[in-house]
From TrEMBL:
Native organism: Rariglobus hedericola
Catalytic activity, reaction form: ATP + protein L-histidine = ADP + protein N-phospho-L-histidine
Residue span, Histidine kinase domain: 674-890
Gene3D superfamilies: 1.10.287.130, 3.40.50.2300, Histidine kinase-like ATPase, C-terminal domain, PAS domain
Protein name per the record: histidine kinase
Principal EC category: transferase
Domain of life, per lineage: Bacteria
InterPro entries the record matches: CheY-like_superfamily, HATPase_C_sf, HATPase_dom, His_kinase_dom, HisK_dim/P_dom, HisK_dim/P_sf, PAC, PAS
Length: 1035
């Protein structure tokens, strides 16, 4: 069209010029005449323009013709393109148009890089095939492709094949790249694929690239897929048919024969001869070889069968007869044949087979005999048997399955009427004499007619169960159901309904229901069950263990309590000897205790277990038991076994032991507390006198040094009394800021003294200060170290580490967020069994023969009272690790030991109370040395009297110092309560040898302003007095 534009424009120009020339000529013709030359020239010009006008018209006409032809060609081209597009879209062949230009470009780059053999390159770099797969771009795909792949648009198809390419796709892609590498433009390849229906198929792929200017254009490659699945399936079916016919001839093991009525020729196969015992060479194809060998009694029936068939009275030739073999014996033969007739109805050829049915005939005879024997057995069987024909029911089930029913029970529930109608397909075909006796009928006819009265509603459930079983492929059901006798007597029967298998096939025409009368048995079972239930309830309710045995001592039964005692389950224990299940020892001597079952059976008497008997359960754990064993007799008084009754008295024995031990511990605690208190009083006197001696000996350096050593010894003795007090009363800790390493090392080394265990310490630099009771924490360390030493009797190395640790709220669940000191004490001993770890801190729990079970309980109590937490980890054979946390006070500074020196003089009036005269004398001297005016009294009542006198006469006491405990008198706690009533402004200091007493730890609660624990030094006393008088806080 673009080429016709200039031609069209030229035509229009010429026409315009012609029209202009005509106009000028007309104007000239109307003007005045001109000279002849001018007229000739004008005429000539006019003709020129006329010719040009005619030429323009001609060009315009040619242009119109060409434009029409081009329009027709364009329309034809569009029609052709539409046809091609419809053909592309609607062809049953799957066609994909793909762009391989990027692949071709990449292959050219490989060639430039020196690659000569693409297959070798792919073998060395197998990942390249998958990596370059996405270079192929899908341009178009017809509807067949989209339908086969289950997508709607080309983009989805491209995403589908690019998603996860299969190995088959990658192999095909590699072959396509090989074709491009070789410069080929076509490639055909047969592929196996799996469609969207997951079925495998075959297809033929034709890959072709067009030529553009003599070169392959890999930018528009067409890939056509032709489905060969039907062809391959047809070929496979043809092969199956050929194989089936070939195998059929071999499989039926028949001899083939043929008779030609036109030519009179006869053919018999080698197998025909073999059936009657002749080799191929011993018999000809003559017709006379057949009739003489037929048994004389069968010749007439054979001839009649053939005549009836050839005359059209029978649809086929089939007859059974006996034929003589080479050895003279006769064999049963089945002869079958078909004839080929001409248009007049005359036979032309008769072809048939001979089959050896001799064994079948014998089997049929044997089967007839067997059926007769079965019928006799059926009629005289002592068990009731009913025969049903279920072929109709089976056919109905098959129809349901063919109609798409998946769940039989769902269908039966939804269609009860249909199901009830279908049950009529199960027809009763027979019953034996025992069935008549079971229902009280006199004849089979009577029983069948009364069947609706005999069967109860249970039969519907049985039939439903049978249908369900048949639906699932099972051929038998069994259970119990109720029926009624003709006289109305209810009976309980066991039934088994089964479909017999005959020759490997289920025979639904001859199914059997076997009925066993359980009426009497059920009554007996119900009575026994009731008795058994009463016995079982009694045995389950018993706290005692009950075990029954036979006469050989083998376990027949044990109840739950006995299972818990022995650690054996009933199933595991039954059949074992009683000695294996009940392993008993004497608690003191550990000697075996014989199981009493044999003695009870032999003596026909009850045998009691000896006292202090211990039962070892299956895991070896001991239990203290009591028990007795009695023989079991039958109705003839013969011993048939024994019953052993066991009672666990472990807890009772433990409680008795704990009561005794607690009583002893209470006595020891009281004694230890009294000793500690009295010892502290003595130490107070000694400490006071040492202090006085030190103050009077400042000029004597050597004497002062010895007195200081004596003072340290007294303080060490005070720590020992503190441990006694902790054991005796377990009081609240009296805290002070201390350096923990010193306490831990001292306590650990003390506990390790004389052992084979060495301790290694790991202490973090800059360890925070702890505010603890030194004596109690020392006791914690000693107990844990002693525990480690006992775990390593052969010696070894234990480790103690200390470090600072800031815990958040979730780090240790039992502790609040804050700063703590973490102390870890670990050993390399035998370890603790997992089942013991949960009880390791329980009071009185111990695994040691000589242990008291108080050591770790005391540790746990002390740590908890310090607002700390303790944990334990252990592994058998590897050792144990205790880890505990104590609150830290990072900013606190421990108080440095004070050296005794003359304190600053103090003034005031002090009222001092203690029941010990030596302590009063020592205190009087110390207080006067400090500058006080002192009055000493012996008990709290004198304190109240003296203090009241001071208030009344105007000589008020500035301070009262009182002992906490006064035997037989008013102690400091009670006296302070009365003083506060007398004078709310009273200031008091409590002093006691019971340093762990709650009053000492919480003295302000009881009205005191300060406290000083016995024994105390002059500096301790002076510090306490100064702090109280100045209104400071001792804490």
């Amino acid at each position: 069209m673009k080429r016709l534009v200039p031609l069209r424009l030229t035509g229009w120009v010429l026409v315009s010029i012609a029209m202009l020339a005509t106009s000028l000529y007309a104007q000239d013709a109307g003007a005045s005449p001109a000279p002849a030359q001018a007229e000739a020239w004008v005429r000539w010009i006019g003709w020129v323009f006329v010719v040009m006008a005619l030429g323009g018209l001609l060009v315009f006409w040619i242009n119109l013709r060409l434009q029409g032809q081009i329009t027709l060609q364009t329309r034809a081209l569009r029609i052709s393109e539409t046809r091609m597009r419809n053909l592309f879209e609607n062809t049953p062949v799957a066609i994909v148009e793909q762009d391989f230009s990027a692949v071709a470009k990449w292959l050219d780059e490989l060639r430039k890089q020196g690659v000569r053999d693409l297959s070798v390159h792919f073998a060395a770099h197998p990942e390249l095939v998958a990596a370059k797969f996405n270079l192929v771009r899908v341009i178009a795909a017809n509807r067949t492709v989209l339908r086969l792949t289950g997508v709607e648009v080309v983009q989805e198809y491209e995403g589908l094949i690019r998603g996860v390419p299969t190995p088959a796709m990658l192999d095909t892609f590699a072959a396509q790249m090989q074709a491009i590498w070789a410069g080929d433009t076509e490639m055909t390849r047969e592929l196996r694929y799996r469609g969207i229906d997951s079925l495998a198929g075959h297809s033929l792929m034709h890959w072709s690239a067009p030529h553009e200017d003599g070169r392959p254009d890999y930018g528009r490659v067409q890939v056509a897929f032709t489905d060969l699945s039907v062809l391959r399936a047809t070929e496979e079916k043809l092969r199956d048919v050929e194989d089936r016919w070939r195998l059929a001839v071999i499989g039926i093991n028949a001899g083939i024969w043929e008779y030609n009525f036109v030519t009179g020729e006869t053919f018999i196969s080698d197998r025909w001869r073999e059936i009657i015992g002749y080799p191929a060479s011993d018999m000809t194809n003559a017709r006379d070889e057949f009739w003489p060998r037929i048994h004389p009694e069968d010749v007439a029936s054979v001839r009649q069968a053939m005549r009836d068939y050839l005359e059209g009275h029978r649809s086929s030739y089939r007859v059974e007869f006996r034929m003589q073999c080479k050895d003279g014996n006769y064999k049963w033969i089945l002869s079958r044949g078909m004839a080929l007739f001409d248009q007049a109805g005359k036979p032309q050829r008769l072809v048939g087979s001979h089959s050896d049915i001799d064994e079948r005939k014998r089997a049929e005879e044997s089967l007839r005999s067997s059926e007769e024997r079965y019928r006799v057995l059926f009629e005289n069987c002592p068990v009731a048997i009913i025969e049903y024909d279920l072929r109709g029911l089976r056919a109905w089930l098959d129809e349901l399955r063919a109609d798409g029913v998946a769940e039989f029970d769902v269908f039966a529930d939804a269609n009860p009427q249909v199901f009830a109608e279908a049950l009529k397909g199960s027809a009763m075909v027979g019953l034996n004499r025992e069935t008549l006796e079971l229902v009280g009928a006199t004849s089979k006819t009577e029983a069948i007619e009364a069947l609706p009265r005999i069967l109860t509603s249970d039969m519907e459930k049985v039939r439903r169960a049978l249908c369900h079983a048949l639906w699932e492929g099972r051929n038998a059901i069994e259970g119990e159901m109720r029926i009624n006798a003709l006289d109305g007597t209810p009976r309980r029967v066991f039934y088994r309904w089964w479909v017999p298998s005959l020759g490997g096939e289920l025979s639904y025409a001859w199914t059997q229901v076997v009925l066993v009368d359980l009426t009497g048995i059920k009554r007996t079972e119900e009575a026994l069950a009731a008795e058994r239930e009463r016995l079982a309830v009694t045995l389950r309710a018993m706290a005692e263990g009950v075990i029954t045995t036979d006469t050989q001592g083998r376990v027949l039964f044990l109840n739950e309590a006995a299972g818990e005692l022995t650690g054996w389950t009933e199933n595991a224990a039954i059949g074992r000897l009683l000695e294996d299940v009940c392993v008993m020892r004497h608690e003191k001597t550990r000697l075996p205790v014989a199981a009493p079952a044999a003695a009870a059976v032999a003596s026909h008497a009850v045998i009691d277990l000896p006292a202090n008997t211990v039962l070892l359960d299956r895991q070896g754990s001991p239990r203290v038991i009591e028990g007795r064993c009695a023989p079991i007799h039958d109705m003839h008084s013969h011993a048939i076994g024994a019953v052993l009754v066991l009672r666990d008295v472990t807890e009772r024995a433990r409680l008795e032991g704990e009561i005794l031990r607690a009583s002893k511990l209470e006595s020891v605690g009281i004694l230890a507390g009294g000793i500690a208190h009295d010892f502290n009083n003595l130490l107070t006197v000694v400490m006071g006198n040492i202090t006085l001696a030190t103050l009077d000996s400042q000029a004597m350096a050597s004497a002062g040094r010895w007195l200081q050593d004596a003072e340290r010894g007294v303080m060490r003795a005070r720590d020992l009394t503190q441990q006694l007090l902790t054991f005796a009363r377990g009081g609240e800790p009296v805290r002070s800021a201390v350096r923990l390493p010193e306490i831990v090392k001292e306590a650990a080394n003390f506990a390790l003294h004389g052992s084979k265990v060495r301790c290694e310490f790991a202490i973090e630099d800059g360890l925070w200060t702890a505010e603890v009771d030194k004596g109690q924490i020392g006791q914690v360390v000693q107990n844990l170290v002693i525990n480690a030493v006992q775990a390593m009797p052969e010696g070894g190395v234990m480790h103690i580490s200390m470090r600072n640790q800031h815990l958040n709220a979730l780090a240790v669940r039992q502790l609040d967020e804050g700063n703590y000191l973490c102390i870890v004490i670990s050993d390399t001993g035998a370890g603790i069994r997992p089942e013991h770890l949960a009880r390791i801190f329980d009071p009185y729990f111990t695994t040691k023969q000589s242990g008291s079970g108080l050591g770790l309980a005391t540790v746990y109590s002390i740590v908890r009272k310090h607002q700390g937490h303790i944990e334990v980890e252990s592994e058998i054979g590897r050792g144990t690790r205790f880890r505990f946390w104590l609150p830290a006070v990072p900013d606190a500074r421990p108080t440095a030991p004070e050296v005794a020196h003359a304190p600053d003089n103090l003034t005031g009036r002090v009222l001092f109370m203690d029941d010990e005269e030596p302590i009063r004398a020592m205190a009087d001297a110390l207080l006067r040395r400090l500058g006080f005016e002192v009055t000493c009294v012996a008990d709290g009542r004198e304190v109240l009297r003296v203090y009241a006198e001071g208030l009344s006469n105007g000589t008020r006491y500035d301070l009262v110092i009182m002992d906490l405990t006064v035997p037989g008198g008013l102690g400091g706690k009670e006296a302070m309560s009365e003083l506060c009533k007398l004078d709310p402004m009273v200031k008091g200091i409590v002093s006691s040898g019971y340093s762990s007493d709650p009053v000492m730890a919480n003295y302000r609660t009881y009205g005191f302003s300060g406290m000083v624990a016995k024994p105390y030094r002059l500096t301790d006393l002076a510090k306490a007095i100064r702090t109280v008088l100045e209104g400071g806080d001792m804490e």
